[in-house]
Amino acid sequence: MFSRADQTGFLPLDQLPALVDGLTKRGYQCVGPAVEKGAIVMRELSAADALPRGLQAEQSAGRYRLTRDPHNRYFAWANGPQAIKPLAFAAKESLWRVERDATGVLQFAAVAPLVHAQAIIGVRACDLAALALQDAHFLREGRRDSHYAQRREQLFLVAVQCAEPASTCFCASTGDGPTPTAGYDLALGEIADGFIVVAGSAKGKAVLDALHLVPATPQQVEAGRQQGQAAAAAQTRSLPGRSLRAALMSQLEHPRWDDVAARCLACGNCTAVCPTCFCHAEVDEPALDGQSSEHARIWDSCFGEVHGHLHGFNVRPDIRSRYRQWLTHKLATWHDQFGRSGCVGCGRCIAWCPVGIDLTAEVAALTTGEVKP
Q1: Chain centroid to CA 216: how far?
Q2: CB 284 within 8 A of CB 295
Q3: How many CA atoms lie within 13 A of 7 on its CB side?
Q4: Residue 43 has pLDDT above 50, yes or no
Q5: Is residue 205 exposed (0-12), middle (13-18) or buried (19+ Cβ within 10 Å)?
Q6: What is the residue-wise DSSP string for 71-92?
Q7: Which of 80, 102, 236, 253 lies most in the core, judged by the most C-beta atoms within 10 Å?
């Protein structure tokens, strides 16, 4: 991200609203961090100066609490429960509609999504990596999802370097953070007196040029680089490798699956907050008068009993088999589909699990025999 000082600009702290204002004038609906129900979520910004300051997120297994940042920074918090995924892969949307005409004949029509050009401010490196995996699934050749594609094409991504990873973060071990390296339009590195800014696309460069920033100094660039290195070194959780396919698939009958099944509630929180999970169901919702019906797509979870039901029997009838399906698909068989793991090290599944199940601890127990406290 900060490879050359002559390719970066420097945005003083008090000029951050100018970036938001510039994006708004270009027709983008600006989305950024907001506090809602005790968590940092992405919501439309009401004004150019509406980005909150001075927040941090204390996270551990089964715990998420907002705290104050003593340095009053804009982006000192680690990831919240959701970021890009709901803005490209909608939690619920109609795909097509059927109505009876005046003669009673059924008429089918596709439902086009209502799409706005959106600029997301505060995207983390792990979420950029997750978006690349979502793209690989929804935009693959011959199976392009038109609803996803229309939303994806309208996104402008303003990434930020993670300077304060949560205790649940392990993106350094997956190779996906904490410093953004690809997939963004603009990337920001927040240091003491402002932001190092670098463009990652043509439309990002156009926005950057319009700000008329002075170049970042070599000292500022170096401060950003060291900050990223320190954030990576501060992470205490990790996976034992980036390719765990062979290790996990050889342990399908390991007794640890019974142990985790005794703790897991099969609530689906981990799949809901995971930025790469894309399981969904399709349902028909008829109107009460019987004259029309909507065919909708909704997020689903492999932890649900119905998800594994096929023609009179269930292929995953218990929590043991469902947790095993989720973990082995995410970390093992994704390599067959996408050439890499489906985990980007964001740690959301750890923080938002109500019983505090830690993916990194489960993997360690299964692959190395190490049982973490």
Answers
A1: 29
A2: yes
A3: 12
A4: yes
A5: middle
A6: T--SS-S---S-SSHHHHS-SE
A7: 80
Give the predicted TM-score (pTM) of the model: 0.93
Q: If you ran DSSP here, which 8-state letter would residue 101 be given?
A: -
Paired tokens of 119: 């600029």
Q: How far is CA 126 from CA 62, 63, 348, in A?
A: 20, 20, 11
Angle subtended at Cα 320 by Cα 366 and Cα 136, rounded to the nearest 5 degrees? 75
pLDDT bin (cut points 50, 70, 90) of residue 1 is low
Q: Which pLDDT value is given to residue 5? A: 46
Identify whether the C-beta of residue 300 lies closer than 8 Å to the C-beta of residue 335: no
d(CA 269, CA 47): 32
The residue type of 331 is L
Q: CB burial class (10 A; 0-12, 13-18, 19+) of residue 112?
A: exposed
For the stretch 218-241, pLDDT in tens is: 999 999 999 999 999 999 999 998
* SS3 category, 283: strand
Sheet holding 292-299, edge to edge: 106-110, 92-100, 292-299, 280-286
